[in-house]
Amino acid sequence: MSRHRFSTADVLAAFRTHGVEPTFTSYTDPSQRLSFLCACPERSPGETTFRAVHYQRIVPLCPKCKTEDRQDRMRANRRVLALSSTPKARSAVDRHAAVVERYRQLFAEHGVTPLADYLGRATPIPFVCRGSCNALRGSIMPAALRGGQVPRCRKCQDAIRLRGEDHPRWNDERTPKERAGDRTAHDKRWDKEVVRAHQGMCVITGDPGTAPHHIYAWISYPELRHLLQNGTCLTEKLHVEFTARFPDGRNTHADFVAFYEEKTGCPCPIPDPMLLPQSELIFVE
């Protein structure tokens, strides 16, 4: 999915839909501070970002209106069902019942069915999700529910989360090579399995070595990136030295053999992973 690029006219229109009058004349990126006149009678000046208005759905307000809005929401969160007479004389049981009822109402506002009542601020409340997940179970902390967070299961939350070019913090200046170099959980599992396969010992010096090393550079051979036999274990010093010799990321098995023989004076015992039978290849999942 390609990312939609907003023009200055698009951003001006987005601000005006909230009744505010933009005073900025140009737009560059979602994190730019943009000035406007608030929709309040005083038409007080304010500042916000397009990220907040468009992606986070935050209404642009001047500082005074923002403070009043925050105070109104705090009062609404504290409001509980009060007894008509002598509210200060309510028992602890009555107070807890009022709090429980308040959380039931919060769930009802989102059309979600809780599976248990409020038990305390440190206890998450389980519920049945009403999204497209076919009613999976989820849980939410009381403070998050009070703060306006929509109760969703993890699957539904992941489905609406913006990723890649649609994310507001996407950096257009990074190259595909730089993004491919980002460390993922999959890469870390490969590192761990390579170190374990070599018992944490450097194959050249025999010293403890915890620097997993690709025999065929993964940048040039991405299909071998998570192949267990394409990894070996070196000390950090030797790993840095070898990598410095091939800054373009084009090293192969032959290069590692030459490096091994240079350091040890012995033949390299590590087979070429590209020559192994398909049935012997182990890819770290």
Give a structural overview.
With 285 residues, the chain is of the alpha+beta class. The chain folds into three domains: 64 residues, no CATH class; 83 residues, no CATH class; 103 residues, no CATH class. 35% of the residues lie in helices and 11% in strands. It has ten helices and eight strands. A three-stranded antiparallel β-sheet has the order 1-2-3. The chain has a three-stranded antiparallel β-sheet with strand order 4-5-6. The chain starts with 7 loop residues before the first helix and ends in a 21-residue tail after the last helix.
Strand content: 5-15%
pLDDT averaged residue by residue: 84
- Given the structure, what is the number of helices? 10
Oligomer state of the chains in this structure: single chain
Give the radius of gyration. 29 Å
Query: Which stretches are low in confidence, meaning pLDDT under 50 for 5 or more residues running?
Result: 81-86
What summary fits the major beta sheet? Answer: 3 strands, antiparallel
Query: What structural class results from the helix and strand content?
Result: alpha+beta
Kindly state the percentage of residues in helix: 25-40%
Question: Could you give the order of the helices and strands?
Answer: HEEEHHHEEEHHHHEEHH
Count the domains: 3
Principal-axis shape equals elongated
Distance between the termini: 26 Å
| Strand order, sheet with most strands | 1-2-3
Number of strands: 8
Q: What is the topology?
A:
Blueprint: H1 8-16, E1 21-22, E2 33-37, E3 45-49, H2 50-55, H3 63-78, H4 92-109, E4 113-114, E5 125-128, E6 137-140, H5 142-146, H6 154-160, H7 176-180, H8 185-197, E7 211-214, E8 231-234, H9 236-245, H10 253-264
Region (Disordered): 167-186
